[in-house]
Amino acid sequence: MKILFVCLGNICRSPTAEAVFRKKASTLGLNYHFDSAGTAGYHIGEKSDPRSIKHAEKRGYEMKHLARQVQVADFHNFDLIFAMDHSNLQNLIQIAHTQELQSKVKLLTEYSKNFNSDHVPDPYYGSSEAFEHVLDLVEDCADHFFHSVTHK
Ligand code: 4NP
Questions:
Q1: pTM for the full model?
Q2: What is the pLDDT of residues 87-145, one digit of tens each?
Q3: Residue 71: burial class (beta carbons within 10 Å; 0-12, 13-18, 19+)
Q4: pLDDT tens profile 50-80
Q5: Which residue owns the Cα nearest ligand 1 atom 8?
Q6: How many angstroms separate the CA atoms of 71 and 40, rounded?
Q7: Which end of the chain has fewer surrounding CB within 10 Å, N or C?
Q8: How far does CA 122 lie from the centroid of its chain?
Q9: Cβ 82 vs Cβ 5: under 8 Å
Q10: Cα-based angle 31, 122, 18 (whole degrees, multiple of 5)
Q11: What dihedral angle (degrees, nearest 10) is formed by the CA atoms of 136, 7, 11, 143?
């Protein structure tokens, strides 16, 4: 199973989701492949936002990703593409040329259980609470995604 996480800049939300899912999959013994990308190209080649790295590290997640922009090949290379918000979702649906490829794209928050949230809010202009909230929400989505897959 190959899963791609997509946000706007690929320096805050999607590399955080990648790191959280990677660790949880490893704990469950699942041999999944994870990556992340941005719909925009502003930060290509950059490390993740230092605030995202700091907050993730406090919870034991390692973020080593370098930002990249999503490309058409991603729709062929990944089984599932999780968008962080509706704008990312719309952009991804425009990039995917066929209905079959579009059907790989979902909102990550479809798997949220303990939060009544239909998107992962962008923390870029926010405070440290915004970065903590991204982690809380992404962990909740990851737990329920893996529960749906493994029933554990
Ligand atoms: P992300 O956050 O989409 O979660 O990586 C952002 C990062 C950078 C910008 C916007 C959102 N930016 O405008 O540079």
A1: 0.98
A2: 999 999 999 989 999 999 999 999 999 999 999 999 999 999 999 999 999 999 999 99
A3: exposed
A4: 999 999 999 999 999 999 999 999 999 999 9
A5: 9
A6: 11
A7: C
A8: 12
A9: yes
A10: 10
A11: 30
Beta strands 80-83 and 105-107, pairing class: parallel
Q: Which residue type sits at 61?
A: Y
- Provide the residue type at 143 as one letter: D
Cα gap 132→138, rounded to integer Å:
10
Alpha carbon of 15 to ligand 1 centroid (Å): 11
Q: Using CA atoms, how far apart are residues 97 and 68, in angstroms rounded to an integer?
A: 20
pLDDT digits (tens, 9 = 90+) for 23-55: 999 999 999 999 999 999 999 999 999 999 999
In sequence order, which residues have a C-beta less than 8 Å from that of residue 97 and are 6 or more positions away? Answer: 72
Q: Is 7 a catalytic residue?
A: yes
How many CB atoms sit inside 10 A of residue 96's CB?
18
56 lines ligand 1 (CB under 6 A): no
